[in-house]
Amino acid sequence: MNHPSPLAEIVSTGRYLPDCVVTNDDLAKRMDTSDEWIASRTGIRSRRIAGPEVNAAIMGAGAARAAMDEAGVDPGEVDILILSTATPDRWLPSTACDAQALLGCGNAVAFDLMAACSGFLYALSMAEGYLCTGRGEVALVVSTEKMSAIVDWEDRATCVLFGDGAGAAVVRPANGSSRGILASHLRSDGHLANLLYRPSGGTVEPMDADVLERRSHLIRMEGREVFKNAVRSMAEASDIALRRAGLTAADVDLMVPHQANFRIIEATAKYSGIPMDRVYVNLDRFGNMSSASIPVALDEAREQGLIGDGSIVLSAAFGAGLTWGAMVWRF
Ligand code: UT7
Q1: Hey, which of 261, 266, 268, 284 would you mutate to test ligand 1's pocket, going by the most ligand atoms within 8 Å of its Cβ?
Q2: Does residue 3 lie within any of the structural domains?
Q3: Domain containing residue 70
Q4: Are residues 202 and 277 both part of a single domain?
Q5: Mean pLDDT over residues 174-187, rounded?
Q6: How far away, in angstroms, is 318 Cα from ligand 1 center?
Q7: Global pTM value
């Protein structure tokens, strides 16, 4: 079967996870919840939480260093650093510039990309476009999320779902190789923004004592609506991306979906026709790390030998915006 010729390939991956493990039982000591509720509704058993000294730039730089070491890339060789985050360390400048300074990537264009949980796939697609138009040889895609800083720890329906962490990938032009991004499909729908958002704290309703009092600068989510949209959108995007790649579900060696909820993953895999023994799951250990979930999972799956030379990998993501998408790679 003829596959499209890839324009860019992931040559290495890396991850950074904070040391502190917080279990469901730990949370149950602080709020009205239980391991039974969280595990049965979501599949999550624990998550990592970064301490005050560890911010998004530090986690991102940690993941990026691991990816650059594997690829044998020096900081000065990086032409573009795209950092996806929903939890920037500051409003100005970008967290990408802080990570660039930490890494010493002095020749890189650096900027943040905000597409929530879909950020890694969005950023890869931007890197692919930059590289294939000849503007650089090395792209560093970093997804880093300190979700613990933006969840409302008084809202048990959302705070138990998220965790902190970072993942990264070094991307290069495919230069005629058969490895790389075979196809992708990315979409967004801002009409559904209020299903998952932070109502205040930006320019629409700047931070003040009233916002703090109402806690409206923190995440608010309509869980059930998000759930329904997530399954539908990820399944549809996976289907389109596979079709564009000239492949079917049977060709997929591993699916690496966004890790929001085990039931969402199961339903998406079922719709896509991919059995669960070919789906990578780590949300039991890390919860939902927004855009960091996919690159952390990819890095673990490569380390475990689940992705090898020639493996066909399908990834699908969904998140605030709403944003969603899918991508197919040959490794
Ligand atoms: O990256 C994308 C981001 N987000 C997502 O993907 C989230 C998608 N949505 C979901 O995963 C699910 O909707 C949740 C896991 C968030 C919630 O599951 P649900 O089955 O939709 O539960 P629910 O929100 O309808 O709540 C059911 C009950 C409620 O009690 P009542 O009203 O039935 O008495 C909640 O108050 O569960 C209660 N509840 C909890 N109980 C114990 C909500 N959170 C908790 C909790 N512990 N942490």
Answers
A1: 261
A2: no
A3: 8-176
A4: yes
A5: 95
A6: 17
A7: 0.97
